[in-house]
Amino acid sequence: MPAHAAELLTAGGVAAAPAVAVDVPPAGVRALGGGPVAPVFPGAEPAGHSGQFSLFRSGPWLLGRAGVRTGDDLAGLVAELYAGLLLGLSGEHVCRTWNYVPRINAPGPDGLENYRAFSAGRSLAFERHFGRAFKCRLPASSAVGTAGGDLAVVFAAHRAVPRHFENPAQVPAYEYPAEHGPRPPSFSRATVVAAGGRADVLIAGTAAIRGHATQAPGDTRAQLAVTLDNLRLISRVAGLGDDLGAGRGAARRIRVYLRHAADHRATAAALAGTLVRPGDTVSYFEADLCRAELNVEIEVAVFGAELAA
Known about the structure:
The chain is of the alpha+beta class and 309 residues long. The protein has helices at 74-88, 114-130, 220-237, 264-272, and strands at residues 30-32, 45-50, 53-58, 61-69, 93-102, 140-146, 150-158, 163-165, 190-195, 198-206, 209-210, 213-214, 251-258, 281-286, 296-305. The protein has one domain: CATH 3.30.1330.40.
């Protein structure tokens, strides 16, 4: 895992705990465009361990990161890892997770696609921890492929009770029909943490899905248009207006995942005239996505936004 750490010095010149870019993708997810990869939560400092997770603090946020070698039982491994994540939280609520799944679209030993096995294990962990009402507790999330052999999971948690939101044009992922796997993906489309009249809004990985069906399979340009419309819809529902908090005094951090590196230049040009505004932090990555027919996925984190009335 990359640990783009910057050493911090105290006023007396003594080395303090290093600030760590906890939430940057692992080495198996290739950054596009050059330059350092910006973390969603900058300035994180080590805060110990909980089970397999290394813990960090970034302001009021508790962050955790774990990497484990995958084997024949991916669903069981994920269920165990997420069970440890949830048990390790003390008075804090998981608000966002990032998941990096080896060979995400490939079949496992039992023939089940790795993403579907991952989804089954994660769903079981949430249900076992929260009970039958677990669906109302699911955080925003994303899952992309990694060329490495390790499963990596990153989480962000907060003491404030979050609110979770769904896109009205999409079936909630946790309600997907059985054609998408033995247990549906367990995440919300957006999670909002409000405090002091402002809010942090974490938008899940968003792609060209309407209802529960993929739109324009394999067509990056057409998928990008649907993805942007989905982002507008969830932005509105989450209280950010139609433009993901642009002009509302918010810091915006955007990540774009592309199945094909050749789409980078055209996608960046299209987003510069639509989603991306001056002052935004934007990172592009080459990665396989949760459905083999998807070519582009976008996630957004908005910090310190003034929510719409």
